[in-house]
Amino acid sequence: MRLTQGAFSFLPDLTDEQIVKQIQYAISKGWALNVEYTDDPHPRNSYWDLWGLPLFGVKDPAAVMFEINSCRKAKPSFYVKVNAFDNSRGVESCCLSFIVQRPTSNEPGFQLHVKKRSQELSDTLFKVTQALVQKVSVTN
Questions:
Q1: Distance CA 127, CA 123 (A)
Q2: If both were cysteines, with which of 26, 82, 99, 130 could 31 make a disulfide (CB 3.0 to 4.6 Å apart)?
């Protein structure tokens, strides 16, 4: 199952040329950039590991691509993403986030097993109800 986190996640993977264009857009807005990676992309894991230092005031997309490619080379089986932060309001707000690398092996995917758990709860409730009915009929 394909992981869908961040912008462009429902589209095919971005090429390096498309990544450069997104980085150029972020730089044109004055946003700070960083590169993060993880092997646990669960949606509740919002804390990915930071690659290097945040890239404040970068004017050349090649510098960001260098960091992305260094991370890709060091972590070939990890997810890698780029984040862009806007500090114009006095806080670092994430404005753009997109995955630039996925594991070469099968993606883990996430599924809800609601039906199975729901059936277990239903069975338990049924048993409790039967026990209560038996207890009431015995006392009457």
A1: 6
A2: 26
pLDDT value for 1: 66
Query: Which ranges of 1-140 would DSSP assign to H, the alpha helix?
Result: 16-28, 61-74, 114-139
Chain mean position to CA 23: 19
Question: Cβ distance 75 to 48 under 8 Å?
Answer: no
Q: What's the whole-number mean pLDDT along residues 63-88? A: 94
Domain boundaries, the chain: 1-109, 110-140
Angle between helices 61-74 and 16-28 (to 10 degrees): 130
Please check whether residue 20 is in contact with residue 61, taking contact to mean a CB–CB distance below 8 angstroms: yes
Confidence check: pLDDT of 54 > 70: yes
Architecture of domain 1-109: 2-Layer Sandwich (3.30)
